[in-house]
Write a structure and sequence with these properties.
N-(1-d-carboxylethyl)-l-norvaline Dehydrogenase, domain 2; 6PGD_dom2; 2 domains; alpha/beta; five-stranded parallel β-sheet; NAD(P)-bd_dom_sf; single chain
Length: 497
């Protein structure tokens, strides 16, 4: 249903107020008191609630999956704040679909509880040990899987070291999952499925590798049991979901709903899942999820065109002070830069999926990025470049180098990232820290101003790519030009080439 913001007395969002919300707001039609849990989700951010939780809600609206309700969970202090907000409103969430043709609003109720957030995760382990829980899903960001540049488990990371030495009081989600697998094995309960919902190539395989590598160092026999009994399906997830700020909180109030944690999202969703669930699953396909053995082609297209494309825009936008991705797309030069990098540097390394050509998909992404109602900030999209560039862009760059194909656009994207990490816009405004490694990145970015190779020698990011002469030369040319002539002149040179 379509709803336009208006001045209205806002109703507190709770189970007992659902019937008094504005008539145009779609609310749960199922009996939430009769739901029982089947999923624990770790990392209850906006994306999860606009995506997985929405798909489950859609099933529940059809009278399905009543025994698959979600219990929220988290392992970071910020998760405790989300827990407090959601429990105060019976774990209900207002989803606001932002479309130029009108605003659609619904309240979803597929989450029914939230585990206490504890430094050593005992409440989480207990929740995961409950035999009713058959899926443990995660959105812990692309950089949250403790991977080295080669994709192996970073056993030198202090969190991983802690969980190896103290497996009974882990600090990571993966340590908690392993402790729960151990408790389930001891109690005679079956293993649960680990379901990654993060934007990673072969995300299920990444989760599986993280779990098994850590478990092997804690208890090799347990690792063997997990490998034999658990499953980790690959999946592709897609929906643009901006962060919630004062504007979103004000907007939902104007709609007549007092929601402390509303979510805005675009008019597009997709979820493609490998059917590999060791303990059953909801009938996802009845909610529009694509179940297939070929997740890789779908995820490769999405990650390379959309996620890598986000990085093409975000760093240039940050340096120029463009606030949102839609602002970047409305800028003729930036949008032309985006299209050229995608067409010349990315699409040659993307396979089409059935019924969709790569050019058609690029046109869809350009339309989605240009939606002016989606206030997706360049800052949010540029966040954690030290994970997103290796995850989204560098695999394409490797393939282009190996094939002897164009790398100029991709090298310019990397140079823009290095320039952005110097921490100032061209106006002189300071760019606030925007990466878990920001201090280190900023130091190297300043060194690279006179020695571009310093940036490429970050082995944990570039591996051996920094030793490639063609890439190093192109990167150095662009970075020197960015500092000498600025972003606009540099983009003009690239576009004229």
């Amino acid at each position: 249903m379509k709803l336009h913001a208006h001045e209205a007395a806002a109703r507190a969002l709770r189970n007992d107020t659902l019937g008094s919300l504005p008539e145009a707001v779609e609310v749960p039609r199922y009996d939430r008191s009769a739901l029982t849990p089947g999923i624990v989700h770790i990392g209850v951010g906006n994306f999860h609630r606009a995506h997985q939780a929405w798909y489950l809600h859609k099933l529940m609206q059809q009278g399905l999956a009543q025994d698959w309700a979600i219990i929220g969970a988290g392992v970071r202090p910020g998760d405790a704040m989300m827990r407090e907000k959601l429990l105060a409103q019976d774990c209900l969430t207002t989803l606001i679909e932002l479309d130029p043709d009108g605003t659609s609003v619904e309240v979803i109720g597929s989450m029914i509880g939230f585990v206490e957030v504890h430094p050593h995760n005992q409440p989480l382990i207990a929740a995961l040990t409950d035999p009713r829980i058959r899926i443990v899903s995660l959105t812990v960001t692309e950089g949250g899987y403790y991977q080295t540049a080669t994709g192996a488990l970073d056993t030198d990371h202090p969190d991983i070291q802690h969980d190896i030495v103290h497996p009974d009081r882990p600090v990571t989600a993966f340590g908690a999952m392993i402790a729960a697998y151990a408790a389930r094995r001891a109690a005679g309960h079956p293993a649960f499925t680990g379901q990654c919902c993060d934007n990673l190539q072969e995300n299920g395989a990444v989760l599986r590798r993280t779990i098994l590598s850590l478990a092997e160092r804690i208890d090799p026999d347990l690792a063997a049991w997990i490998e034999q009994n658990a499953s980790f399906p690959n999946a592709m997830v897609d929906c643009i979901v901006p962060a919630t700020g004062p504007a979103e909180l004000s907007f939902v109030q104007q709609l007549g709903i007092a929601d402390a944690a509303p979510v805005t999202h675009e008019n597009y969703r997709k979820w493609v899942i490998e059917d590999a669930f060791c303990a059953g699953r909801p009938p996802w396909e009845d909610a529009g999820v694509v179940i297939t053995d070929d997740v890789h082609t779908h995820e490769s297209m999405k990650i390379r065109v959309l996620n890598a494309g986000h990085q093409v825009l975000a760093n240039a936008g940050e340096i120029l002070g463009l606030e949102t991705i839609a602002d970047c797309m409305a800028d003729p030069q930036i949008s032309a830069f985006f299209n050229k990098v995608e067409t010349d540097g990315i699409l040659p390394h993307v396979d089409p999926v059935p019924g969709v050509t790569t050019q058609d998909y690029l046109a869809l992404i350009e339309k989605r990025f240009a939606n002016p109602l989606i206030r997706d900030t360049t800052r949010r999209v540029a966040f954690d470049g030290s994970s997103r560039h290796p995850g989204f862009l560098l695999p394409i760059l490797r393939e282009a180098i190996a094939a002897g194909q164009s790398i100029d656009g991709l090298a310019l994207v990397e140079a823009l990232w290095a320039r952005m990490c110097a921490g100032t816009r061209e106006t002189g405004d300071v760019i606030a820290p925007n990466d878990p490694m920001w201090t280190e990145l900023q130091t190297v970015a300043h060194a690279a101003r006179t020695d571009p190779q310093a940036w490429l020698l970050q082995g944990h990011i570039y591996g051996d790519l920094g030793q490639d002469d063609r890439f190093a030369a192109s990167f150095a040319r662009w970075l020197d030009m960015l500092w000498a002539k600025g972003v606009r002149a540099t983009l003009a040179t690239y576009l004229s080439g």
